[in-house]
Design brief:
The chain has 156 residues and is of the alpha+beta class. It has helices at residues 10-23, 39-46, 53-65, 84-94, 114-117, 120-133; strands at 29-35, 67-68, 79-80, 97-103, 145-151. Strands 1-5-4 form a 3-stranded antiparallel beta sheet, covered by helices on one side.
């Protein structure tokens, strides 16, 4: 589930997806997890990383083109951060159909989740509303991770 975000070059991502399509059975399903273009924006403010000018420079590049190039820092590894539209387009270019996007964390990305997980009632409500909102496109941007499911078309 990680190779796509490790490939900054679009042609490499398309090659990876095309190979997945090639070896998949007709009507088979692939699940891709990608990192949201806005993951660093959320983390930068949650963890006060924005106090570091170098991080802000990295964040600006993330938001501009999706490339995360931390150089010689302790920040997250070299990666590519997708928008929901980008992952759908790449999957379509590779030949997949019936593409669906869901938010993994959804609105919980902006919360201190530990305050909810130790209380069963709060945890149950949190999971209930993550589930209810995971398919709402307007909320995709606040989820750190997105999952795309797609199907290989059957041969006609």
């Amino acid at each position: 589930m990680g190779p796509l975000y490790h490939l900054q070059d679009k042609q490499n991502r398309l090659r990876c997806l095309s190979e997945a399509l090639r070896i998949l059975k007709d009507n088979g399903i692939v699940i891709c997890e990608v990192i949201s273009r806005y993951a660093n924006l959320l983390e930068g403010f949650q963890c006060y990383l924005i106090d570091d000018k170098l991080f802000v420079d990295i964040l600006d590049e993330n938001l501009l083109n999706g490339n995360h190039s931390p150089g010689d820092t302790s920040y997250f590894t070299t990666a590519f951060f997708h928008t929901p539209e980008e992952i759908v387009k790449e999957l379509e270019q590779a030949g997949f159909v019936d593409i669906s996007i869901i938010a993994v964390e959804g609105f919980a990305s902006i919360l201190d989740v530990s305050k909810f997980l130790n209380d069963e009632r709060r945890k149950e409500l949190l999971l209930k509303y993550i589930n209810k909102t995971e398919n709402i496109p307007e909320l995709f941007g606040i989820s750190v991770h997105l999952i795309a499911t797609e199907k290989k078309p059957s041969k006609v």
